[in-house]
Please model this.
Amino acid sequence: MNKETKNSMETQEILTLRKAMEKALEGKRYEHTLGVAYTAASLAMCYGQDVHKAQVAGLLHDCAKNYTNEKRINICRKNGIPINEAEQKNPFLLHAKVGSFLAREKYGIKDKEILDAITYHTTGRPDMGMLDKIIYIADYIEPGRRQAPGLPEVRRLAFASLDDCLYRILKDTLDYLGASKMEIDMSTQQTYDYYKALRCDQKGRESL
Ligand code: DGI
Ligand code: FE
Ligand code: FE
Model:
């Protein structure tokens, strides 16, 4: 495929997905979705990653957000998607896995990196891929976000070091979940532990 054909197919894909999300999501959630797509694209530019894939993953990351918990649980049961303990107690967490399923089955996405980035956008996972990190961070810092503590600093960090930014978000999220006495998903804890250990390793090496 020549470059021009590829470019025009990519533009068409973005237009189609944007229209689909406008239909599937409420107004505020759609605005958030656009914010994540553009922020993810900017991070991809900053770190030399595929800008189109970042946009697609950003547009679709919350595509299951408008479903009821009952519908999300049903989709999991019917399609052999496992539900862990934290997800059972907080079924909203399932919008990530179900979103990835819908991205594949309903929106025709075949790219594994995009599907993984959607699956892990809420909890993260140890040893995340570049696109996983970009979507996880873009979701937290997009312009429409207002509530998280220290957002200006987290936003600056996002464009300076993905791993430092990831660690900071995971730490703040675990603090928040702990303070609100919410169930912590194993993946959130394991991701935090992984990036904390990575930081210690790096600091250790720097001081050698
Ligand atoms: O869907 P969004 O609101 O755009 O963002 P998201 O998918 O990252 O979800 C954010 C929420 O998920 C935020 O309130 C923190 C929460 N969260 C992240 N990890 C866990 C969690 N909630 C629980 N109960 N357990 C977790 O491990
Ligand atoms: Fe989400
Ligand atoms: Fe989101």
